[in-house]
Amino acid sequence: MVDEKDASLPIGWPGENALVSAIRSTYLTFLERRGMLGLSNPGTFENLNREVSRDVFLTNFMFTGLRAEWNKPLMLFTAVFLQGTMENDGSLVARSNYRWNDSLITKTNAQIQSGQSMLSIENDLTGKDFTASLKGMNPSIIEGGLKGIFIASYLQSVTPSLALGLEAVWQRVAMNSSPEALLSYGARYMGSDWIASLQMQSEGPQGSGISSSYWRKLTDKVSVGTDLSLQFAPGLSGQGGLMGGGLQKEGSASAGAKYEFRASTFRAQVDSKGRSSCLLEKTILPAVRVTFAAEMDHLKVYIGADSLSNKQQAKVGVGVAIEATSEDLMEQMEKGT
Q1: 16 strand-pairing partners
Q2: What is the pLDDT along the chain (337 residues), one digit of tens a residue?
Q3: Distance between CA 274 and CA 312 in Å, rounded?
Q4: What's the CA gap between 172 and 150, in Å, rounded?
């Protein structure tokens, strides 16, 4: 028997529509079975191989010369985080995070270095088993059109160990140049103590490429990582330098290791281009960290007046950083937690 409330519903109301009810039931069943898989958030597509590129390798840590840093949060609230970093060469980096809710966060990064400026705005939507991101670098419309670099990505866990995703990039350097676009596909697989990732870039103006990485935790204090990449670019024919001479292929390989001690961290890395580098971070006080970096390029080519010659080139860096906040708290604030 239909009660008075149900009888008052007009014919065709969504609650009484068989098609809508079937779709809703199917969707709820899908969510229920999806939850039973026990999937976790895979992170962002940008950090597909974060254990190798951001933790083991020296890419984000290497520097030369003398460097002094002072890091201090400018403001800290429940949903807002602001931080500024200034180095001895006058470089300035400012970061801010604003968490709209538990799933959506906006990250802003501004840099001024050697007369050059860069602004990036990123929005991350984090679900239980996926992450969707939209990022803009140096966006501008003041010249009568849209220019800059825009990146949209999505990474989805499909099993407790496997995540698949894609990334689309659109860029225009100047209004008098044509826009460029490319698409990349990625996969990430997690084992008990190892992680492997694969990324393939579709053919664009600069060609196509494929890269893979492998990370493994040997002990609680030691982890290693490798990265292999192969790039394909349009080659030049031997007649007048015209296009159409086939594909140019260029590959590279890198391997690195990270050792964690009680109050210090040591990283070392070698690559197929003849470079070897190492970096030691030492905490001498709870808020003071000293860093020593060194790099040797064994295959550096110098162009002389008449010929090419090989000569080793060495770079050394020494830095001091003063942290006004602990690293654990800084990481939590950057993530917006």
Answers
A1: none
A2: 444 444 444 444 455 578 888 888 887 887 788 778 889 999 999 999 999 999 999 988 888 888 887 776 665 566 677 777 776 667 788 888 999 998 999 999 998 877 788 899 999 999 999 999 999 998 888 877 888 999 999 999 999 999 999 999 999 888 788 888 899 999 999 999 999 999 998 876 667 889 999 999 999 999 999 999 998 877 644 444 444 556 688 899 999 999 999 999 999 999 998 899 999 999 998 889 999 999 998 776 554 544 455 566 788 999 998 876 555 555 555 555 4
A3: 10
A4: 9
> Are the C-beta atoms of 191 and 161 separated by less than 8 Å?
yes
Give the Cα separation of 49 and 188 in Å (integer).
Answer: 8
- The DSSP secondary-structure symbol of 297 reads E
Q: CA-to-CA distance for 132 and 124, rounded, in angstroms? A: 6
- Cβ neighbors of 40 (< 8 A, separation 6 or more) are 128, 129, 157, 160
**What Rg value do the Cα atoms of the chain yield, rounded?**
25
Nearest to 149 by CA among 129, 123, 179, 114: 179
Q: From CA 235, how far away is CA 237, in angstroms rounded?
A: 7
**Sign of the dihedral defined by the CA atoms of residues 126, 44, 324, 121, in that order:** negative
DSSP for 140-208, please give it: E-TTSS-EEEEEEEEEEESSSSEEEEEEEEEEESSTTS--EEEEEEEEEEE-SSEEEEEEEEEEETTEE
User: How do strand 313-323 and strand 65-76 relate by DSSP bridges?
Assistant: parallel
pTM: 0.77
What single letter denotes the amino acid at residue 128?
Answer: K
As a whole number of angstroms, the distance between CA 112 and CA 94 comes to: 9
Among 60, 201, 53, 43, residue whose Cα is nearest residue 128: 43
State the sign of the Cα–Cα–Cα–Cα dihedral 48, 49, 50, 53.
negative
Q: How do 194-204 and 180-190 pair as beta strands?
A: antiparallel
